[in-house]
Description:
There is one protein chain. The chain has helices at about 60-75, 85-95, 100-115, 120-125, 145-155, 170-180, 200-210, 225-230, 245-255, 265-270, 270-285, 300-310, and strands at about 5-15, 20, 25, 30-40, 45-50, 130-135, 135-140, 160-165, 190-195, 215-220, 240, 260-265, 290, 340, 340-345, 365-369. It has a seven-stranded parallel beta sheet with strand order 7-8-9-10-11-12-13. The chain has a four-stranded antiparallel beta sheet with strand order 5-4-1-16. The two termini are about 15 Å apart. The chain folds into two domains: about 5-115 and about 355-369, Enolase-like, N-terminal domain (Enolase-like, domain 1, 2-Layer Sandwich), CATH 3.30.390; about 120-345, Alpha-Beta Barrel (TIM Barrel). The relative contact order is 0.17. Helix 1 (about 60-75) crosses helix 2 (about 85-95), helix 1 crosses helix 3 (about 100-115) and helix 5 runs parallel beside helix 6 (about 170-180). By secondary structure, it is α/β, with parallel strands linked by helices. Helix 5 links the parallel strand 7 (about 135-140) and strand 8 (about 160-165). Bound molecules: (2S,4R)-4-hydroxy-1,1-dimethylpyrrolidinium-2-carboxylate and magnesium ion (MG). The site of (2S,4R)-4-hydroxy-1,1-dimethylpyrrolidinium-2-carboxylate (0XW) has 11 residues, from loops.
Amino acid sequence: MKICQIDVWQKDLPIQGPAYKMALQTLTALDTTLVRITTDNGIEGWGEVCPLGPAYQPQHAAGARAAIGEIAPHLLGENPQYTEQINQRMHQALCGSLYAKSAIDMACWDISGKAYNSRVCDLLGGAVREVIPSYYAIGLSSPEEAASVAVKKQAEGFRRLQLKVGGRTLDEDIACVSKVAEVLTPGTELAVDANRGLNVNDAIQLSAACRDIRFVFEQPCQTYEQCLHLRGNLHHPLWLDEVIEDLNGLLRAIGDNAAQGFGMKQSRIGGISLMRTAREICAVAGLPMTCDDSWGGDLVAASCVHLGATVTGNLFAGSWIAAPYIDGHYDNQNPVALHNGQLRVPEGAGLGVTPDGTRLGSPAMSFSL
Length: 369
Ligand code: 0XW
Ligand code: MG
């Protein structure tokens, strides 16, 4: 099997409803990139990458398309089923830009699944669950509003909530965590996620002030080194997210005993192939992880669900998807949709999601043999 065409689309994803507010960013729209790889025997595979705006981390939408444009010509004629070789070819063609490569990697896994008539999760070793837990991220808001959302989302079936903090006074954060804690029903887990918005001092003080509230403290401070300062100074497990920028970062954090869990975004570390390795590393270390991404539609969501379905039992903390903020689905026949705070693994071969290409308009870029 050979890659004979690669098409790339740009698609706007306006946020439905209120802006998505985190400590350091407020988002009202996202810019996603869809990739379709067509093989010489007619199989099509789809991938997607959607950075969380241009300022969140060193990944941005135009950069993804530029990187894909640099890489694509080097992949024509290659066998997409050989995902390891595809990744090597991508690294030979372009250093870094793991997030851009993740979309191509995703499309190759989609093709492999279709070629073997298997779901991606089954190619990854098999689903240990057919329905996986998701979680809901409560944006920066007043204590009353955050508590109201927490009540609503628990009523919808979510059993894990992520509460955004940071970017405001410490007292506001403490009040918000306390108010949300009052409305948590038994069995609902809480992650308090600062998305790097707290200094070391405030992170320690927030944990101390809320020492009687159970939560995992996600990415409190800006840098890995600042988070290292928190070791032994917190009353809560520390989870890292944004500072884990690749597998080496994950290995380093585990070797340094820097964290007790990880909020993992598959595009940031390079896609399904490398997220599979992250899964194995966390399993060996006995550390829990999420299988998330920065943003994206049904394709990104499907990849997170396939990955999440394969994480060992009690080490899986859920998959967040952006669907609640997106108007519509790429594949109306097989949408990746939340039900009772959970996500069902798509049934079809590959990702189980096929965007309706006629609704995407003309590709922004195309490459062919
Ligand atoms: C909740 N997420 C997975 C979605 C947004 O990209 C932020 C992210 C996080 O946990 O930081
Ligand atoms: Mg996070």
